[in-house]
């Protein structure tokens, strides 16, 4: 057979099966054959998997890169933003497309879906999309696509620009925020977005937290000088996420449109999603490694170190929340596990240190700490090591939630599986018996961030090779791919169930 790459002797895993002693034949970047002892002509490149696990490349659909409108703080430093483009890479506090996608491939992720964020409240989304194309073009190590963050759904945007976003730009999902002052939408505005999304087959991602509870709690905690980083969690108990989750599920049911609840952190919100799914509503759930592997005590570290783990929704106090999220992965409540890679440097005045700049409290004020954690590189290895190798989930479930379901949910038709016709995006792991477990340090990672929230965690394996469209881009600890190899992917509509044409009243769109 006419291959240009053959991966030999792998334990190949898909979302449904495991084949031992299996080869993968690749031609022109596409998988064309899967099976034992594939015949190849002399001179064809071969990689011996040595019996190790071989899994589809990770698809991470929640990655913030080069995003100028950072979430979580009211005091946005607009000097870092110039017309949506980043002027000064050296002084930028987050990851750009080059550093973020370099980090992605080093952790076995082959496709990222990042956010093009409407920056000024009344701004057309078309120049925003164009700007993000400029930021990403020739900069990416892995394949990429965009969601659009909508902070002001004007009639022009939802009626005229949404159809262009889908047809001209191949973008079939939007993200909405129910919290964060500069970004949050009222329920009325959410319905405006959902109405148009339903017509166009757009998937709506929702950051569900009750903004008024957060504002009220923050004000009242400040009066009591309860402003340490861990009080970020105090201001947002699980009910904050659960109420907003339940509310937005109701809006989606009214509008008969699919939504994805992003970065779910608590048992209570998980229960609402599960209950909606049991009623066969097209409600999807996403969680992230930080809610599986970290708890709120990480925000209690001294010397302001707790700020490193400030994200929204917050890390939870109660291990029961963590257990419920693991259970939700196993029972299918969570469709995907994404990183929510939303990094801010720790030792930078515009990074996490912003939380120390207001007033003279030695432990700062949590409301000024930019929200978010880095995690694009650690997501796949954490789920493999702490999920599969620790016996919590099966290898097939790992593939389903880190790759296959993400590709299906977001219309990435050629991604997320090992099978004929799919892009040859492949991760080859180390044979388990030859791998020396290690404890992670930030120096091992490839992002531009000065810390990892997973410092010190033990990893029992790590991707040995990452392959994108048949090219090795990461091998034995080194990024060998080229910046600019990553391609923009126009996406189709979701391949998962959508509207059901079931209505709550005689009203129809
Ligand atoms: O704290 C978080 N998650 N920051 C990133 C922005 C978002 O809400 O996804
Ligand atoms: Zn969010
Ligand atoms: Zn996010």
Strand content: 15-25%
Mean pLDDT: 94
What ligands does this structure carry? Answer: N-(aminocarbonyl)-beta-alanine, zinc ion
Envelope shape: globular
CATH architecture of one domain, by name, is: Roll
CATH homology superfamily of one domain: Urease, subunit C, domain 1
The share of residues in helices is: 25-40%
Largest sheet: 9 strands, mixed
Number of distinct beta strands: 19
Cofactor: Zn(2+)
Protein name: dihydropyrimidinase
Catalytic activity: 5,6-dihydrouracil + H2O = 3-(carbamoylamino)propanoate + H(+)
Pfam families: Amidohydro_1
Q: Would you kindly provide a brief summary of this structure?
A:
The protein is an alpha/beta fold.
Fold and architecture overview:
This protein is of the alpha/beta class. The protein has a domain at 5-57 and 412-479: Roll (Urease, subunit C, domain 1). Helices cover 27% and strands 19% of the residues. The chain is built from 12 helices and 19 strands. The protein has helices spanning 97-106, 125-136, 155-167, 187-200, 211-223, 231-234, 238-255, 267-278, 289-293, 319-330, 379-388, 395-409; strands spanning 5-13, 18-27, 30-35, 45-48, 53-56, 58-63, 109-117, 143-149, 173-177, 203-207, 259-261, 283-287, 334-337, 426-429, 438-439, 458-459, 463-468, 471-475, 478-479. The strands form 3 sheets. Strands 1, 2, 3, 4, 5, 14, 17, 18 and 19 form a 9-stranded mixed sheet that branches. Strands 6-7-8-9-10-11-12-13 form an 8-stranded parallel sheet. α2 (125-136) links the parallel β7 (109-117) and β8. α3 runs parallel beside α4, α7 (238-255) packs parallel to α8 (267-278) and α8 (267-278) runs parallel beside α10 (319-330). The longest helix is centred in the middle third of the chain and has 18 residues, at 238-255. The protein is globular and about 75 Å long. The protein starts with a strand and ends in a 30-residue tail after the last strand. Bound molecules: N-(aminocarbonyl)-beta-alanine and zinc ion (2 copies). One zinc ion binds next to loops.
């Amino acid at each position: 057979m006419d291959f240009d790459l053959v991966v030999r002797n792998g334990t190949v895993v898909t979302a449904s099966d495991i084949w031992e002693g299996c080869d993968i034949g690749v031609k022109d970047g596409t998988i064309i054959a899967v099976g034992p002892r594939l015949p190849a002509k002399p001179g064809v490149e071969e990689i011996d998997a040595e019996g190790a696990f071989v899994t589809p490349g990770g698809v991470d659909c929640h990655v913030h890169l080069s995003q100028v409108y950072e979430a979580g703080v009211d005091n946005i430093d607009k000097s870092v933003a110039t017309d949506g483009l980043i002027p000064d890479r050296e002084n930028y506090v987050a990851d750009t497309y080059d550093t973020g996608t370099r980090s992605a491939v080093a952790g076995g992720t082959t496709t990222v879906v990042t956010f093009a964020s409407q920056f000024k409240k009344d701004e057309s989304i078309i120049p925003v999309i164009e700007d993000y194309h400029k930021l990403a073009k020739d900069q990416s190590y892995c394949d990429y696509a965009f969601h659009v963050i909508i902070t002001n759904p004007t009639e022009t945007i939802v009626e005229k620009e949404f159809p262009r976003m889908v047809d001209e730009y191949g973008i079939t999902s939007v993200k909405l925020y129910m919290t964060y002052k500069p970004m949050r939408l009222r329920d009325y505005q959410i319905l405006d977005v959902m109405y148009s999304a339903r017509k166009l087959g757009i998937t709506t991602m929702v950051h569900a937290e009750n903004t008024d509870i957060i504002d009220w709690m923050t004000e009242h905690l400040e009066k009591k000088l309860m402003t340490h980083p861990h009080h970020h969690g105090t201001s947002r108990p699980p009910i904050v996420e659960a109420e907003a989750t339940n509310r937005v599920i109701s809006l989606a049911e009214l509008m008969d449109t699919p939504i994805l609840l992003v970065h779910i952190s608590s048992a209570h919100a998980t229960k609402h999603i599960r209950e909606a799914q049991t009623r066969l509503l097209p409600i999807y759930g996403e969680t992230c490694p930080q809610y599986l592997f970290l708890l709120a005590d990480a925000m209690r570290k001294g010397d302001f170190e707790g700020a490193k783990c400030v994200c929204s929704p917050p890390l939870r106090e109660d291990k029961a929340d963590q257990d419920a999220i693991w259970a939700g992965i196993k029972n299918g409540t969570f469709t995907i596990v994404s990183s929510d890679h939303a990094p801010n440097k720790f030792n930078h005045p515009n990074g996490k240190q912003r939380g120390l700049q207001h007033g003279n409290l030695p432990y700062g004020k949590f409301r000024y700490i930019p929200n978010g954690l880095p995690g694009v590189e650690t997501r796949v290895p954490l789920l493999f090591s702490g999920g599969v190798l620790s016996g919590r989930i099966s290898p097939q479930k790992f593939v389903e939630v880190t790759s296959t379901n993400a590709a299906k949910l977001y219309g990435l038709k050629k991604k997320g599986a090992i099978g004929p016709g799919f892009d040859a995006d492949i991760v080859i792991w180390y044979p388990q018996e030859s791998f020396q477990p290690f404890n992670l340090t930030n120096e091992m990672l490839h992002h531009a961030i000065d810390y990892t929230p997973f410092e010190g965690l033990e990893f029992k394996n790590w991707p040995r090779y990452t392959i994108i469209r048949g090219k090795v881009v990461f091998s034995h600890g080194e990024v060998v791919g080229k910046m600019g190899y990553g391609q923009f992917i126009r996406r189709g509509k979701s391949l998962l169930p959508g509207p059901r044409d079931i209505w709550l009243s005689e009203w129809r769109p």
